[in-house]
Amino acid sequence: MTVEGDQVGPLMEGSDSTVSIERALELTGYGKYTILLTLACGLCLCGATAEIYTIGFVLPAAECDLNLDTSSKSLLAGACLIGMIIGANIWGFLSDRYGRKKIIIYSGSGGVFCSVMAMLSHSFWAFTIFRCLVGAFVTGALSTIFAYSGEFLPQKYRSKSIVFIGVLQNFYSIFIPTLAWILLPLDYSITIFNYKFNSWRIFLLLNTLPLLFGTLSVSFFPESPKYLLSTGDLDSTIQVLKKIYVGNNGKDDYKVKKIFAEENDDKKLTNKSFLVVLTEQFSCLFKKKYIFDVVSTSFLQFCNFAVSSGLLIWYADILNIQNNDDSNVTVCEAIQSGIKNVTINCNEEKNEFNTSMFTQNLWIGVMYLSGQLIIILALKYLRKTFIQGLFTLTAGICATIMIFVTSPLLINILFVLFLVLPGLCVVVVSAIVVDIFPTHLRSSAVSFSLTMGRISSLISTSTIGHIIQLNCYIAFSIYATLLISSSVVATLMRSKEKRNCDKNVK
Question: Of 79, 197, 192, which is closest to residue 127 (Cα–Cα)?
Answer without folding.
Answer: 79
